[in-house]
Each structure stands twice: as C-alpha cells, then as structure tokens.
Amino acid sequence: MRGLGLIGVLLAMLVVAWLATRQTASLNQLALPPATAGAAAAPASGNVREQSQRIEQQFKQQIENALQTPRDLPDDAK
Predict the structure, then answer these.
(1) Stated pTM of the model
(2) What is the pLDDT along the chain (78 residues), one digit of tens a residue?
(3) C-alpha dihedral over 20, 22, 27, 33, to 10 degrees?
(4) Region Disordered: what ranges (predicted)?
C-alpha cells in the first residue's frame, strides 16, 4: 500500500512539474508584444527616446481619430 501511495505522489509531482513548464512557456510567449501595423512601418533603427516618441505620436493620432469619428447614440440616450 505504501508503494502505491509513493507512486501516486510521484505521478502527481510529475504532472504538476509538466503543467508548470507549460505555463511558464506560455507566459514567455505572451510577454513579447504583438507586432502592430504602425510598428512594422516604422524603421527599427533609432534610440529608445526616438522610438518612444514615435509610439506616443501614434497613440495620440489614434486617440484623435477615435474622438473625431461620429458614433450613433443608443435609442435610450435620445
């Protein structure tokens, strides 16, 4: 009986270790930012300041575009 208990514990530890490695592998893949269309069009050269300024400008343009597009109000708000 003790042998079966020991085998069960070892099997459970193997399953947990396997799940932990899969989880960390998926987290490493999620940590990389997805490529956006604006980032693909921008050159990869330049220092960090220039890149951050480009990203900030793209963000501001997207906010301005979103604010300028008219949206229909729901029937409740009319």
Answers:
(1) 0.37
(2) 788 899 999 999 999 999 999 888 877 666 555 555 455 555 556 688 889 999 999 999 988 888 887 777 777 755
(3) 170
(4) 36-55
In terms of C-beta density within 10 A (0-12 exposed, 13-18 middle, 19 or more buried), how is residue 38 classed? middle
Side chain identity at residue 20, one-letter code: A
Q: How far is CA 27 from CA 22, 33, 34, 55, 75, in A?
A: 9, 12, 14, 24, 43
CA atoms within 13 A on the CB side of 70: 2
User: What residue type is assigned to position 29 of the chain?
Assistant: Q
In whole angstroms, give the CA distance from residue 72 to residue 25. 43
Q: Where are the alpha helices (DSSP H) in 1-78?
A: 2-31, 37-41, 48-68
